[in-house]
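Notes from hallway chat w/ T.B., transcribed later so I don't forget. T.B. wanted the structure written out for a chain they're using in a teaching module, and asked if we could keep both sequence and structure tokens in one place. Agreed to drop them here.
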Amino acid sequence: QVQLIESGGGLVQAGGSLRLSCAASGRALSSYAMGWFRQAPGKEREFVAAILWSGGKTWYADPVKGRFSISRDNAENTVYLQMNSLKPEDTAVYYCAAQPLGSGRYDSWGQGTQVTVSS
């Protein structure tokens, strides 16, 4: 498995920006896809964005398209989630996760970081 540590959450006003970081360590990261998920109070965890370590292909959930951007720094083994034009409905605990390519499931998770967007 991969060890993941998130950081960068906080309180921001609607319309503001935050950048989340996910520091990864462990097995060969080039064979993983990295994802960001979020879970709001009383709601199920939902997919936000994902990126391949190798090649950098990205995917986004519809609610965040055009506002959020996922990227990775191979030298630093870090994945980022740049969040712009934040809305109160983006308030949630954000989790970083790793999926071995071909497995179809995320098997490593970070501890989560709280993002709160005030109106």
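Follow-up for T.B.: The chain has a mean pLDDT of 95. Might be a good example for the class.
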